[in-house]
């Protein structure tokens, strides 16, 4: 097949790797009419993972089933979908916002970007070329509509990240300190960006930049625990992520905070091979940049999954930068991280942090809401 039917972005999303031609298994499937939609699965928890892995669903339903397996802040899954025969609308579910920790809804919109990316990876196997329009109707007043994915008929093909959708999990386990991620791999991950306003910067954990990243991360973790509004907001997120939030008393959550602080030092920072920062050129309040950055994160994580890398977002000091920016109009933490970066990063904002390395064990699946509960008319 040729790649000419794929948009530049979805082509780049494959890291310039060839899509696997599935035409031997059938001609372009075309677009399903709404009448031929697969039934929407109504199981949650691990059910959505089993549904996807066992190959169930077709067309837009299967694409949406992939979208909900993406990363999201605190597993809040802040999305709703409107499924049509020629387009999928992706809406922000603002009831799932965590509050003070995410005052600009940066993380919420990044989560939507992650879901959009998974949808775009799943679409070619359904004989669909996805064309994404971000925030298309803001001016029309529908400020919950984050994106429209137009579905164009295409020859059926399997995206190189397709099978990684089921295997990608946030890995919070210790990473192997004896095995470093080499520069060629970091360069390849840095090359996955598809927007001129979004980039990723890597800091080796043993470098001076890595030491500053660790210091800021530890200070921010303590500050979130010590600042009532931020702590409550984190607890909202922890409750959202829990399969059963009812036993999460304040006492249990305080213990969880102490464990979190310790794990940030002794596991997350101490065993990372490198840290990554997704940077955007523009303001940190711009939802378009948030969605682009979310797409980039999901792409990096899927690509890393194909390379057997372990990854974990680490946004403690990024959340503090947002908090300071909202409450003080300026951020001393942002100035500290900037001081550690080369001059050519002037004008770029850090909006997402993560660590990467190799882990001995696979991370567990996190629960999902049933697809039936997030498809709206
Ligand atoms: C914008 C964003 C911010 C996140 N921040 C953190 C973080 O600071 N620490 C962390 O451990 N995980 C973080 N995560 C990962 C989510 O908790 C994770 O994606 C969610 O629980 C679903 O799990 P999964 O990625 O394994 O599917 C973040 C994810 C996103 C999309």
Question: Main attributes?
Answer:
binds flavin mononucleotide; NADH Oxidase; globular; 4-stranded antiparallel β-sheet; single chain; 377 residues
Protein model, in words:
It is a single chain. By secondary structure, this protein is an alpha+beta fold. Helix content is 39%, strand content 16%. A four-stranded antiparallel sheet has the order 2-3-5-4, with helices on one face. The relative contact order is 0.18. It binds flavin mononucleotide. One of its GO terms (molecular function) is oxidoreductase activity.
Task: Give a nutshell description of this structure.
This is Tat pathway signal protein. With 377 residues, the protein is α+β, with helices and mostly antiparallel strands. It is built from twelve helices and ten strands.
N to C succession of SSEs? HEHHEEHEEEHHEHHHEHEHHE
**CATH class identity of the largest domain:** Alpha Beta
Estimated structural class: alpha+beta
How many structural units, i.e. domains? 2
Low-confidence stretches: 1-30
**Which strand order do you get reading across the main beta sheet?**
2-3-5-4
On the 0 to 100 scale, the average pLDDT is 88
Distance between the termini: 36 Å
Fraction in beta strands = 15-25%
Second rung of CATH, namely the architecture of the largest domain: 3-Layer(aba) Sandwich
Ligands bound, unique = flavin mononucleotide
Total beta-strand segments: 10
CATH names the topology of the largest domain as: NADH Oxidase
For CATH, the homologous superfamily of the largest domain is named as NADH Oxidase
Radius of gyration: 20 Å
Helical segment count: 12
Q: Based on CA inertia axes, which overall geometry fits? A: globular
Helix content: 25-40%
Sheet with most strands: 4 strands, antiparallel
